[in-house]
Amino acid sequence: MIAGVALAALLAAMTAVKEGKGVVPAAAARKMRQGQENFRVVTAGGGVHNKKYAILLLDVATQSFQEVVSELKARLTSKGEQHDH
Fold first, then answer.
1. Total structural domains in the chain?
2. What is the pTM of this model?
3. Which of 12, 44, 50, 61 is placed for a possible disulfide with 35 were both Cys, Cβ 3.0 to 4.6 Å?
4. Using an 8 Å Cβ cutoff, are 73 and 17 in contact?
């Protein structure tokens, strides 16, 4: 279940990056990489050896991806507002 939530957050972040035409601020790019690494560690290891740690990594990955989406949407919104003036 938690892996599905993390995967959905990852896909949302990837969509936000695409919508931003690949222009990603350094902080958001760092969060994206960290989230991807945490997700990869769990999916590569199957998360069976230490379930609590796997859940923690997936929670952190989900949060990272959600922050990327928020940052990129805010950036797109502010750019749209700048063009309106």
1. 1
2. 0.82
3. 61
4. no
The whole-number pLDDT of residue 80 equals 66
Cβ-contact 43, 4 below 8 angstroms: no
What's the maximum distance between 2 C-alpha atoms anywhere in the chain?
55
Burial string for 38-65 (b: 16+ CB within 10 Å, else e) reads: bbeebbeeebeeeeeebbebbeebbbbb
The whole domain housing 49 covers 2-84
**Residue pLDDT, tens place only, 2-38:** 789 999 999 999 999 888 877 788 999 999 999 999 9
At residue 65, what is the residue type?
F
